[in-house]
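Field: COMPLEX_INPUT
Field: COMPONENT_COUNT = two
Field: RESIDUE_TOTAL = 398
Field: MODE = joint
Values follow.
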Amino acid sequence: MAERAGHRGYIGARPLNGSRTPQHVQNIVIRDYARRKNLQFLLSAVEHIMPGSYMVLEDILDELPRLNGMILYSIFMLPPDEARRREIYDRVLREGCDLHAAVEEITLSSPKDIQAVEDILLVNQYATIL
Amino acid sequence: MTDTDFLQADEQALAQRFIDNGFVTTPADDRAGLDRIQRRAAELAADYLKLPHSNDPYAMLDSIHTRVSVDDLNGLRLHVFNGLNAEAWFRPTYFRLARSTIETIVGNELCMQRRVNLSIQMPGDDSSLLATHSDVWSGDSPFEVVVWVPLVDVHHTKAMYLLPPSLNGEMQDKMADLRSAEELYKTIKPHATFIEIPYGHVMLFNQTLMHGNRVNEEPGTRWSMNCRFKSIMSPYADKRFGEFFEPILLRPATRVGMQYKLPGGFHG
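Field: COMPLEX_OUTPUT
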């Protein structure tokens, strides 16, 4: 079996929570996170701008057998559908990988980490921002 | 050409090829400038590998896979990328390689991507592949074009592939039913064309069309550069003016127009 290497970055062209961040800035955030966590950062893949498309995320999931994991710019880049997210978590863990989110400094490396991530995403749906 | 045409006959022909094929290839307007870029890229590569500068930059670049491992490739690429982009003459020279074609296809009031990209694809290496994509899917404006310049001869899998305009819409309509870019490539594969470009030529292509690369199965390494151009006043998408593009040809009439203020202070 080929040796695994690195964490694939995942950035996007769609706004998050109503705010837009230039792609090169997203990469700076991911690179800094990887450096501080001592992770080998691999060139980021860019999710499509089309609403509802997660085709690039699927490509990274297909690549997981060759990786140590992935680093999302933000946890809020995950699909809005909970069932789909849980499929992603299961697939990452099943492949022996981990999932990081750089802005929120989240690491998902075991099943016990899933609920904390889901709590953040759920609260974000309901909490108001002043 | 008749006296009722605004465009010269050669401009009309070039424009029609771009519309019909999605790309045009032409000899570089500034061959000496292209040779200078190739030579500098080879020097930077030699410096990174602690080798003497070669008298044959073409051979140096084409055979780089005999001197560098896949694991060290990105380090080499970044060294050459940073070195070229640090040269004050590099971007103006890059623009001059295709100036006449850019002006015909895009216009003469232009902005240019702030850094010219560099790709290196060694034979058999699958670590630098670009999945099937259209640049607009990643936030580029449909009003941009890409000027793609090889530093060696490229053909077949040593080159990039592009889907013809006549099929792009039909294939794009199928995307929502496909799971991944690899599934998308399998769908378009029978129709995608690898574009042969001899060194000394440049390509300008429509980046709204699906394109990408595959594992290089040719004996030589592909070195290519790419850079986006657009009309300054055409609509921007996620790649914004200032952070991604900067003006290179802002005309006096536009400067005057942007700074002009009508007389005010009227009180009815």
